[in-house]
Amino acid sequence: MCGIVGLFLKDKALEPKLGAMLSxxxxxxxxxGPDSAGIAIYGAPSGNEAKITIQSAKPxxxxxxxxxxxxxxxxxxxxxxxxxxxxVIRTTPAKIDxxxxxxxxxxxxxxxxxxxxxxxxxxxxxxxxxxxxxFDVRSMTGTHGIGHTRMATESAVTTMGAHPFSTGADQxxxxxxxxxxxxNVRRELIRDGMKFETENDTEVAAAYLSSxxxxxxxxxxxxxxxxxxxxGFFTFVVGTKNGFGVVRDPIACKPAVMAETDQYVAFGSExxxxxxxxxxxxxxxxxxxxxxxxxxxx
Amino acid sequence: xxxxxxxxxxxxxxxxxVFDLAELSLRELNQALxxxxxxxxxxxxxxxxxKGSHSVAVGVxxxxxxxVRGSVGYYCGGMNAGGAITVHGSAGPGVGxxxxxxxxxxxxxxxxxxxxxxxxxxxxxxxxxxxxxGISMKGIDxxxxxxxxxxxxxxxxxxxxxxxxxAGDALGDSIYEARLFVRGKVESLGADCIAKEMRPEHVELLxxxxxxxxxxxxxxxxxKRYGSARTLYNFNIDNADAY
Lengths: 298, 243
What we know:
The complex is a heterodimer of chains A (298) and B (243). Chain A is of the alpha+beta class and 298 residues long.
């Protein structure tokens, strides 16, 4: 089943509440998937730093002293902010790839959740409320975000099998459904230079979009491509550094509701997820059409 | 007796029993509805704060009027037998699934498979219905003021589907004996579904459905009728190689 949510703010006044709003949306869909949950938050760009969200099953061992070791290795300042099993590493944008490689060399058990100028990604096994509490998502500020609560079908219930999946800088995707041609598409993407962390079908969809955008397509064009190149059931909600997109497969059996006001665009697997949003009673509420791309950019 | 008459006769808001789902559970609401017995004086109900709840007023089996103030989630009014349910908002997937009799009116839009497998009664959607509206319908009458999505009336067996707007792809795929009346354009017809002549009995039937659904200012002559070509009813030996 799975439950997915997304929130793209137009009104800057709501930005301090993004984490709280998105958390409530996701918690309301808890009974659509008890296995794992995750949220990606796009914070305000600072201009002079980039971020890597990392995860470890043994955070005390893996995160201790990591900032100093990485800073020494790459010759640039590093900061680390630990939140439970996750940590956000900050450094100068020019050093971000080097920092990422260094982290993986120094601490082989650390997994990269995502990286970019603005995105932070938190995901773990457990119910949405537990995951939101663990990472204090409610206090997070941002411009847009997406979330997922998972009922696993295609791969193991692990942290790495949880959504969102991020396969490019500031790009991530959540998925309700299952893909049937993901093995073939994964092989093609590997030939194209994409790297995969899991056997999961959704990671393939994320990498497909990252690959298209790396080849110069915009978010809308990349989403359009999923309709002909991905086979299976899907409702995707996607975030990029400044964009937010939604697409459903032509059969469209995975539910979706959207709402738009002057203040935001919101997505939920069900209307329940939208009921606490400000001004929802007067919002334009609609079901996104099958095989139709919707996207917004700041 | 047409369900709309039940609705008018029993709807008296001043004496409605009000159920606020912000304070009481859905189970308490549905249990209270299920405990009604024939001849009960509690014939008018009002449900507040549904906020997308699933299964609101499922399994009603007495001729009571229920006004739901807001939007509902999955399966509202499922298996309804005699109730007159009005949703003053939109409905999630499967509204009126397997309805037996009575009526359900949705003031907003309805999501997927509205009226699926319905055996009787009247489902009115004043907005649009999305995909698979009336899938496997078995006697229910469905009137949609707006448009319907793709694969509507898939394997529809009997009953009537009336659409004042347009229909999406593959309307009436593998249809049996249900009648489909569409006023707007049809994106495409499904397998074995064809346009059919509007004979006087169909005009009369359609007028009756429009009247029951409270539709005014629309004439039966504005609709086209679609139904089964009946070529899939028996196995065609020429297709044996396909199996």
